Amino acid sequence: MSRIVSVHNAQCRIGKHTVLRVEEFVIEQGQHWCVFGRNGSGKSLLANLIAAKRLESGNYVEYCSGFDPMQDIHLVSFEEQQRLWLRDNRLDISEYSSDAQDKGTLVSQLIRSVRAMEQQDDNLLQQLSCELALDAVMHKGIRFLSSGQIRKVLIARGLYAYRGDSPQLLILDDPLESIDRGSQQQIRNCINDHMTEGFSSLQLCRRQQDILPGVSHMVLMERSGSKLQIVKQGLIEELSNGSDFSRITASAAAVPSSLLGLLTKKRATMQPAEELIKLENVTASYADLVVLNKVSWTMTTSDHVLIEGPNGCGKSTLLSLIDGENHKGYGQKLSLFGRRKGSGETIWEIKKHFGIVSNELHNKYIKGWRVLDVVVSGFFDSVGLYDDSSSTEQGLAKRWLEALGVAELQTQYYHEVSFGQQRLVLLARAMVKNPRILILDEPCVGLDDYHRLLILSVLDEIAAKTTTRLIYVTHVADEQPKCINQRLTFTQCDAGGFSIQQESQ
After folding, report:
1. CA 170, 171, 174 angle in degrees (round to 5)?
2. Distance between CA atoms of 457 and 480, rounded to whole angstroms?
């Protein structure tokens, strides 16, 4: 086999103290690697180094003749989704168009963009569209897709790039994250069918059950103090049965005692009959597209709610109706905390009752904010800090970071820590103001097994010891807090859009 990418004696620094060191790592054509490790072990940093997205790449990374990393490496990651969303939103011209609409980059355009005009293959495009169930969104703008939908689009784009006449590398950063259960097997089958000897792939993975079936080689990564390193690499059959892999996948997690101190004095007597949220035949549509169709739902102070449904069914739309982000709720029978929405309250009066962890919020924080500032911004319901914070607010923010095991990150820049660590920071941001409702839209996305168990345990403690009620969205079977006692299931309507069924559990 011929070498595509070689990394030699690399040193790659994040912030003042953390350094990734790689003595040697080689990807040969036809190999399919899994880079496995916990949050913060350096997986994304290694991938960015290989993809020529670091300044150090020019010093330590070599590519085979004719291989252009900017053209021949294709990314599937939340960071790539964020980059595409930001670009499309920046180029949005809907306010200048006659119908106030701008679709932006269409799905079909994004997939086709990896090939020159004379190299387009309509048969392959149709095949991938069918295998990944993208037919219904091919002519939609990417900014109107759910996180799971655009993830499938990026997978299609990466697989469409391979032409057979030149080496390609597909980097998959946890490709099954944010994907509904029905689509996960579709994606596994599709990627596996295209894992031929003609192209190579690199999967970044945090959980053993998410390793793709066609992977041939594995890299194990760990953090030791301020050092990020490869601890072992080789054939997956050998490494997945070894002691290093067993150590990394150990997932016992205990709720820190510092968290219990934050929560014990918050519990108050509540009346179970008090309504927090009430929707009666609420509809949300965009032009001719109906998303939610006559949705009715009641949440009381005794409820912790699980929301589940396929990608694109309107889960995020439902959440935006109640947290103040979506104007479609006005003029309809939608009440929050016993008050009809649109009866004179400001958006800030609505927001003060909610703490939020979501992909959409995650995408809003870009470069420039330190971790502690991100957490403190939760007091102001802002993206970043635009006002002076008190020492009390700073102190409480630090205590929440400590309680979630990421106190050492507080002075680091948010964009420089791993995706999973960013998720923990957003949970701290959501809880600093002791919200009445905590909205968790796939909060465990990007987390390894240890931190997933930690988050679920923390949420159960919050439910037991505070007045905060939970709304929890997930695609992962059996991944929910134990306190959940109400389930909302989305069902498709014959007249278009989705409705919901409410049931106790």
Report:
1. 130
2. 10
Sheet containing 169-173: give its strands across.
61-63, 3-14, 18-28, 227-235, 217-224, 32-36, 200-205, 169-173, 73-76
Q: Edge-to-edge strand order for the sheet containing 333-336?
A: 339-340, 333-336, 275-286, 289-300, 498-504, 486-492, 305-308, 469-473, 437-441, 354-357
**Are 10 and 195 contacting, i.e. CB atoms less than 8 angstroms apart?**
no
Give the mean pLDDT of 192-215.
89
- Give 435-491 pLDDT, tens digit per residue: 999 999 888 888 888 888 888 988 999 999 888 999 999 877 778 999 999 999 998
Provide the total of helices (H) and of strands (E) in the chain, helices listed first: 18, 19
Phi, psi angles (nearest 5°) of residue 94: -60, -35
Nearest Cα to Cα of residue 424 among 480, 464, 370, 371:
371
Distance of CA 169 to the CA centre of its chain: 23
Give the Cα separation of 423 and 374 in Å (integer). Answer: 11
Alpha helical stretches, state H, 134-214: 147-161, 181-194
Helical segments of 380-499, H only:
391-403, 419-431, 449-465
End-to-end CA distance of the chain: 55
